[in-house]
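Here is one chain, start to finish.
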Amino acid sequence: MFGCHLGRLFQVTVAGGSYQEGLSATIQGVPAGMPLSEREIYGDLLLRKPGADELSSPRKEPDLPVIYAGVNAADTVENAGNKHHTNGTPLVVLIPNLDRHFEHIKQYQDTNRTPRPGHASYASFVKYGPDDDAIGAGIFSGRYTCTIVAAGMVAKKILKACGIEVFAFVREAAGVAAPDVDSATALKSGEAYKAMRRDYDPFYQELFVKGRLDEDMRFLQKMKVLSEVENEIDAIRAKTPEFRAAEILEKYGVHPVLNCPDIEAAEEMTKAALKVSAGGDSSGGLVEVRATGVPAGLGEPVFDKLDAELGRMLGIGAVKAVEIGAGMKVKNLTGSQTNDQMTAEGGKVKFDTNSAGGITGGLATGQEIIARLAVKPTPTIAKRQHTVDKYTHKNAELAAITRRDPTIVARIWPVAENYASLVLLDHLLMHFGYQKLMETIKGKG
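Its structure:
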C-alpha cells in the first residue's frame, strides 16, 4: 500500500487498521536530546479518541500509546541524565486496539456485502479485492488518525521549542458558526480545554497520574498492563467524573464538549448536532488551524508551496476542503480588498490585514498562518440508504448498526492541529538548512 508516508526531512509512516492488532507511527527526523513520554503523547490522543463525550462514537478505545523505539531506556553513561530522551534513531509509537470484540466484528461481517454510502468501502473493495480490510474500514477508518495525532504531538513539541505555536479549534458545527476570535484568546482557551480533558479522562488519571504505566517499565511490562486494561475498560470508564458544565466553565473557562473559544456558540453547536443525530442523521462543520511565530520565508516554490502542503490535510478522513486565509471568499473580492498592504514600523514590516492567511507565493510572510478545514457529516447514519451488493452488484438497502459519531468535527480538530505541525516542522528543517547554507557560503565569499 502506497500513500502512508509523509515528509522529506521530518518523515512519518503509519500502519495498522481499525480492527487489526493496532496502529503505529514511525517517525524519522526527531532530534536527539528531547525528553519524551507516553504520558505526553496520550495527552493529545485523548482529545481525539472515541467514547469521550456525547458527540463521539461509543467505541471505548482508550488509545494508549507505547513508545517502542527511538528513546533511551537508561542513561547512556551513569548519571548522564539522558534517560527517556530521544536519541536520533527512528521513533516508533504503537497504539494497540483494545476495544475490538466479536460482536462488533460480527456487525461489520453482517453488513460488509453492502458498502456504506459515503465510506471508502466500495472503492477499497474494487482496489484490493475480497481480502480488503473491511472490518471497521481498516486504514480508511477515522481510527487511523490517532497515528497522525501521535506523530504530530512530537512535531508540535519541537515547533514550540522553536517559538512556533500550532493550535486548532471548532469554528462551526451543524450549521452554527462561532464569531471571530484573536489568536491569543483561542490559544489560551485551547490549552485550558486540553487541561480539562486530561483532568476528566479516567485513563489519564488511572494509568499516568497514579503511575500504573511507568516510563521505566520494559515493553512487555507495559503490554501486560494494557492487557489488564483491556478487561477493565468499563470499570475505568466508570470513574469518569460527571461533566457539569457550570463547574467546568467556572474552573477552566471552557465548554465541556467542544473546543471552541466562544462558549455560547459551542453550546448551540452541541445542541444542533444532537438534534440532527436524534433524527438518525449526522452533521459536519469547520475546523480552524492557526500557527504563530512562523518565520518569514518558510516554504518552497511551485510544487511544494507551504499552502499547497497544508492542503495535504485533505488526507484526513472526512475533510473535503482546505482553505487558507480568505479562502473561497476571494472569488467575490477585488484585488484592493484581498491585498495585505504593508507598512514599516521600527525596522519591522507590518501588514494591515491577513487575507493571504500568512502565506504568499507559497512562502510564509511572518504573519499568523490560518487554515480552515471543511468536515463532512459522519457517513455512517441510522437512516436507510440504497446501496449495492458488492459481490453480485444487485441493489440493496442498508441501515447502519455499527458504532458512529453524531458529528466528526469535534474529534477532527486535534488531528488537524497535529497534521499541520508535521507539515510545518518538515518545512522548518528545510528552511533552517537552506538559511544555514546561505550563511556559510556568504561567510566564505
